[in-house]
Amino acid sequence: MRRKVCKTSKTLLASLPDHIMTEIMFRLPIKSIIMCKCTCKALRHLISSTDFVKLHYARAKPCILLANIMTFDCYMSRLVYLLEPNNMSFISDDSCVCSVNDPSEGVNLKLTQLKNPTYDGKHAWINGDYVLVNSCNGFLCLYRGHCPQTYVVCNPVTNEYLKVPSPVNYIGWNDVSRGFGFCPKTKQYKVVRWLKSTDRETPVTAEIHTLEVHKRWRTLVDTPVTTNFRSFDHPMYANGFIFWVYRDSPQSYCVVSFELEVERFRSLPKPPIYRQTDIRMEMIGDRPSLCSRPSRAKIDIWTIEAFGGVSEHWSKYVSIDIINIPRFISADYTCLITTCSKCETSFLLYHLYNQIMIYETKRQKWRSFKIHQNNFEAKPTIYTPSFFSLKDAVPGANVKSISAGFVWPPEKMPPYLKEEVSVAGST
C-alpha cells in the first residue's frame, strides 16, 4: 500500500507543469523547500536549477538571522535561526518578516533552524569560534575569533562553505574591521579587511581579496579613515557597495563606502548624530540608512538622499518613541530595519534577553514576541536566504559541505516563538 501511494504521488508531481511547481515552492518557508529537495529527483532538479535559484532570491524577503552566540566573544554556535514569515496559508506572496496577522488569527512568524556549515562535529571548539561579518546574496562571511586572518564564506541554506586564503600576518598590524560584498558587473565576490598599526602615527590601510582560484590579497590605496578613529563596526553590503560606520571622536560618527567595481573608498557626509549608541547601517529601499538612539526613549532613522550625487545629504526618515516600552528604555537592544512592498517599512528591536518588538509604520503599532529557551543568546542581523551555490559563485574553488550522513545531536529544548500582549506606539 505504501509503495502504491508513493508511486501515485510521483505521478501527480510529474504531471504538474514546472511553472506551477515553482510557484508552490516560492510560497513555502525555507525549511520546507530544503525538505522538498530531498524527496525526489524531479524536485531536486527543479530547486537546483539556475532559473529557480535566481527567481527565488529575487522574490525573497529580508528576514532576521539569529546567530546563537556561545561566548562573550560572539562566537557562532552550531545552529542558526531564521525568523521568517510562515507562508503556509498561501494567502499572499507579499509576506515578509513584518507581516503579522491579527491576534485572533495567530502569529505569522516562525523560527527556522539552520546549520552552521563551519561546524563539522569533530572539533567543535576549534571549528566553532567564527564571528559573523555580514551577509551578501545569502552568503555569510565569517572570521575566526582566535585567528582574525582566517576567513570563511558559507551558505547555511545549502550547507556549503569555502575557506578564504589567509592574508599575510604583518607584525605590528591588527585587523580592526572587515566587509564582504558582490560586484554585479564582474560577478565577483570580494572580502575587504581594515588594518591598523600599533604605531598611532601610521595611517590605517586596507586589503582586498577576490574569491577566485589562485587570487591573492591586494593592498588598497587612498583609505579615507584617519589614525584616530575609536570604533569601526557593523559593515553592510548593498547594490555593489560596502558601508561602514566608525567613530572619529567621542561625540561624532562618520560613514565610509567602498565601491566594489572600481575598488574605491569614499567618505559620505557626516550624519547629524552625536553621543549615541548602537549606530547601525541598514537599507530603506535603495537608500543607505542609519538607525540611532539619541535618548533612552527614542529611536531616529536617517536616510541619505541623492546617494552619489552632488546634493548628497542626510535626512531624518522617522522618529520612534519607545516610552511605552519600559523594558527597552534602559536595556541593551539592537534596532534593525526591514522593508517590503506591502507594509513599506518596519523596525525591529531585539532585546538582549530575546524580546522582539516589531513596529509597523502603516499601522503605527508595536507587536511583541518572545523567544523561549534557556541560555539562548543571539546576535541578530538582516539576512535574505538564498539557494545560490558557492560552486557556481566561485568556479573551481575547493567548496566543501556538511556530509548528508552527518547526524547533529538533537537540542534538549529547541527555542520557540510566542507572541505577547501588543503595545501601543507613536512617531
UniProtKB/TrEMBL annotation:
Pfam families: F-box, FBA_3. Coiled coil: none annotated. It comes from the Eukaryota. Residues 10-60 form the F-box domain. This is F-box domain-containing protein. It comes from Castilleja foliolosa.
